[in-house]
Design brief:
7-stranded antiparallel sheet; 3-stranded antiparallel sheet; 2 domains; 196 residues; alpha+beta; Protein Transport Mog1p, Chain A
């Protein structure tokens, strides 16, 4: 009798654990959309409800997918994830290495950036530089929107795979940056790179 009760308890615990896993997995599956259009040599998950746009350079050789999320509380800035792929210099691109790309981004893309974190990690099986910077974006002069300087926090994961340079970026209003960090980490963990 005790043996049957013990196995019944073990079975009930296993069913409960499976149910919790299924519910969590189902909730996560509905929370993200899989990007796999063939436009970029990569696939990844991004938050459902975010607006996707794809673009390519006319003068510079690059392709990007940008996912734009909700606006900040002041309605002056939208959170965004961007995946950019460009060829290395030997294949007609602008930069020979990840270091050149990082220097260009920090010097030319932001007004007076302050690097708050610099580390390394693996992304899609490749070593990546993980750079987080804060800077101020000048106010947009659009009628109906407040004319306020926007403190922005941007994270860039930069890496090379074969003869391509990858940038995975997350930018948001500095105050609201933590809101979508988990979604960004999910995108990074879900990325799968395709062969050239």
């Amino acid at each position: 009798m005790k043996k049957g009760l013990f196995f019944g308890f073990v079975f009930a615990a296993a069913v409960a654990a499976a149910a919790v896993f299924f519910v969590k997995h189902s909730e996560e599956a509905g929370r993200y959309v899989r990007y796999d259009t063939g436009f970029l040599p990569a696939s990844f998950d991004y938050p459902a409800g975010w607006k996707l746009t794809e673009d390519k350079g006319i003068v510079q050789k690059y392709k990007q997918a940008m996912m734009v999320g909700p606006r900040n509380e002041d309605k002056t800035f939208s959170a965004a994830f961007t995946v950019i792929v460009s060829p290395t210099k030997e294949k007609g691109g602008l930069f020979s290495s990840v270091d050149e790309l990082k220097t260009h981004n920090l010097v030319h893309l932001f007004d007076d950036p302050r690097v708050v974190e610099l580390s390394s990690r693996q992304v899609g099986g490749a070593p990546a530089q993980d750079v987080t910077a804060v800077f101020e974006r000048p106010p947009f002069r659009i009628q109906g929107l407040p004319h306020k300087t926007i403190p922005v926090k941007e994270r860039m994961l930069l890496f090379q795979k074969d003869s391509r340079l990858f940038e995975i970026r997350y930018s948001a209003d500095q105050q609201e940056y933590p809101k979508h960090l988990k979604d960004f980490e999910h995108l990074v963990a879900s990325i799968r790179l395709k062969s050239a």
